[in-house]
Design a protein that fits this description.
The complex is a heterodimer of chains A (364) and B (67). Chain A is an alpha/beta fold. Chain A is built from 15 helices and 9 strands. The model of chain B has no long low-confidence stretch (mean pLDDT 91). The chains are: A alpha/beta (364), B mainly alpha (67).
């Protein structure tokens, strides 16, 4: 057992049900497997156990967390435990009255995610009209005096909107703007050919974001997350495997990240059978990629191993079939040609409309 | 100090400064108070250090300036 690790953030995936069907959803592909949902009392226990482990922040996410009728009760408990509580939502379905109740229960901040500022593009991504409601919800968040994060997931079909999105976020008086490119896992990997932008698109958007970041310093924090397919080195995924984050899926499965449970052979226990403390410190799943012993040669001898820990384990698994390999995104990975191939494809497919495979299986 | 999706672990001095940002105290008031806590430092050093820290936090949107 290794007590050196402490989770700071609990990611509570309260449900995988969602009114939207985004083609890049970060929920697992086999949604049906996670259809069962743990009950209110189990979540309350999870929160208390998380607090005892050292957690100080909780992200209430999904699916769409607003679909849980016990959200108020969960926020109340999170607040009582002293957590900073973020609601990560599509804004659908929400009323101003309910938002006020959530605030009064102790909610700390709200993130509203957008697909596009062009209603047709937005509907093409999430398969229902949602833009109008999202704008209203974002205004309510500020009106009831909660900090607002505007999040937009960027890809080939909306990267050119970036300047317009920044203007909208300013108009909404957002406190924080997340310009987050798609990371190609889960449903996004299925739809990679239709979503992955060209290098030129990314470079152009990055410049616009950089200018906004400078100009808006002090009024709005601007974050630009590049698609890791265009980075030289992998991202520090989740701050390292089992080092800072603990995620509980709707069915009670506990995992170091959103998709670790999609790695075959990964043993991740459920809160229905074990305490969070036992899972965090003792489960084989959480320990599997801690430290350096698991690393392949090229990571073990690399000075960046303390920076990115070899990158994303799920990406390594879903692209190479082996979760213990270097993230292929890394320019030093022997599998890097897989990434180059995908990048090169964008040069030939730009301008050709692609069909999406939509998130489905549950919750419409 | 916690904010959406992240947090910063403040050292003792930063904590002393940030906890005084209550929407009412002026920078001068804060420096006056810190002078009493850190009486072995000159006013100039405390003032510079305080302004540096406030600037970093302001740029990240973690504090606001009320005029």
């Amino acid at each position: 057992m290794n007590k050196q690790y402490r989770p700071y953030t609990l990611i509570a995936e309260l449900t995988h049900r969602c009114p939207l069907h985004c083609a890049y959803c970060s929920n697992p592909i086999n949604l049906l497997k996670y259809r069962d949902e743990i009950d209110t009392n189990t979540w309350l226990r999870v929160f208390r156990e998380a607090e005892a482990l050292g957690v100080v922040q909780v992200n209430l996410t999904g699916g769409e967390p607003l679909l849980r009728n016990d959200l108020e009760r969960l926020i109340e408990e999170a607040h009582k435990l002293g957590f900073y509580t973020n609601l990560i939502t599509s804004g659908i379905p929400l009323t101003k009255q309910r938002l006020i109740h959530l605030r009064d229960a102790g909610l700390s901040s709200v993130q509203v995610s957008f697909q596009s500022l062009n209603d047709a593009v937005a509907q093409r991504i999430c398969k229902r009209p949602a833009l109008h409601q999202k704008l209203i919800v974002a205004e309510w968040v500020k009106a009831v005096d909660l900090p607002l994060t505007v999040n937009i997931v960027l890809h080939r079909e909306n990267l050119h909107e970036i300047a317009e999105i920044i203007t909208m976020a300013e108009r909404l008086k957002a406190d924080r703007l997340e310009l987050a490119n798609v990371q190609y896992l889960g449903w996004a990997l299925r739809n990679r050919n239709a979503l992955l932008p060209t290098k030129e698109q990314v470079d152009e958007a990055r410049l616009v974001a950089r200018e906004a970041k400078k100009r808006l310093a002090g009024t709005m924090e601007v974050l630009f997350v590049i698609p890791d397919y265009y980075a030289e080195f992998p991202k520090t995924c989740m701050g390292g495997w089992g080092q800072k984050f603990i995620l509980v899926a709707p069915n009670g499965l506990v995992s170091p990240c959103h998709l670790a449970h999609t790695i075959s052979g990964m043993h991740l226990p459920s809160v229905q059978n074990y305490s969070l403390e036992e899972i965090w410190f003792e489960s084989s799943g959480f320990n599997q990629f801690r430290g350096e012993a698991w690393m392949p040669e090229e990571c073990r001898t690399c000075e960046r191993r303390h920076v990115d820990f070899g990158g994303c384990r799920c990406q390594a698994f879903h692209l190479t079939g082996d979760a213990g390999k270097t993230d292929p995104v890394c320019s030093l990975s022997p599998d890097h040609h897989l990434i180059e191939l995908a990048r090169n494809q964008t040069k030939n497919t730009t301008g050709i409309p692609n069909n999406f495979e939509y998130r489905s299986g549950h919750g419409s | 100090m916690l904010f959406p999706e992240r947090g910063i672990l403040l050292n003792a001095v930063a904590g002393e400064i940030i906890k005084r940002c209550d929407g009412r105290s002026t920078v001068t008031t804060i420096v006056d108070q810190l002078m009493q806590t850190y009486d072995d430092q000159s006013r100039q050093i405390i003032e510079t250090e305080t302004l540096n820290l406030l600037q970093v936090f302001y740029a990240r949107g973690l504090i606001r300036i009320e005029s």
